[in-house]
Amino acid sequence: MAATTTRAKPEAPKIVWNEKDRKFETEDKEAYLQYQLRNGGKVMDIIHTYVPSSKRGLGLAGHLCVAAFSHAQSNSLSVIPTCSYVSDTFLPRNSSWDSVVYKEELKSSI
């Protein structure tokens, strides 16, 4: 009987919420997602995602986005995807988060 080797999946990076600086970041603080709160703290505007060139291609930006969107969802916040990575890359690949994206309420004209 031949032995089979299984490759362990790389462990997802630990993402930390830095509430004081309004960031979600990797433990080493090298990669981060920055946001601003709007509408009295009910809306999270994701303004910037940064991953250093030495760590690109590892999916860190996606992990940062998932952490931010999960936080928004569990705290009943909506998200404005100002950052082009979030709007042009993350959301098209992860449409399950569309329900968290901020939509300006339509006001009745009556």
What does this structure look like?
With 110 residues, the chain is an alpha+beta fold. It has one domain: 3-Layer(aba) Sandwich (Aminopeptidase), CATH 3.40.630. It has two helices and five strands; from the N terminus they run ββββαβα. A five-stranded mixed sheet has the order 1-2-3-4-5. Strand 1 (15-18) and strand 2 (23-26) form a beta hairpin. The longest helix is centred in the middle third of the chain and has 15 residues, at 60-74. The radius of gyration is 17 Å and the shape is globular. The model has no long low-confidence stretch (mean pLDDT 90).
Give a short overview:
The protein is an alpha+beta fold and 110 residues long.
Characteristic key phrases:
110 residues; alpha+beta; Aminopeptidase; 5-stranded mixed beta sheet; 23% helix; Acetyltransferase At1g77540; GNAT_YJDJ; Acyl_CoA_acyltransferase; Gcn5-rel_NAT
Backbone shape: globular
Just give the CATH class.
Alpha Beta
Number of helices: 2
- Main beta sheet: 5 strands, mixed
What's the count of strands? Answer: 5
**Biggest sheet: strands side by side, in what order?**
1-2-3-4-5
CATH superfamily: Gcn5-related N-acetyltransferase (GNAT)
Q: Distance between termini?
A: 76 Å
Low-confidence stretches: none
Q: Mean pLDDT, nearest integer?
A: 90
CA gyration radius, whole angstroms: 17 Å
The proportion of residues in beta strands is 15-25%
* CATH architecture label name: 3-Layer(aba) Sandwich
Judged by helices, strands and strand pairing, the structural class is alpha+beta
As for the number of domains, it is 1
Q: Helical residue percent?
A: 10-25%
Assembly of the depicted chains: single chain
Elements, N to C (H/E): EEEEHEH
Q: CATH fold name, please? A: Aminopeptidase
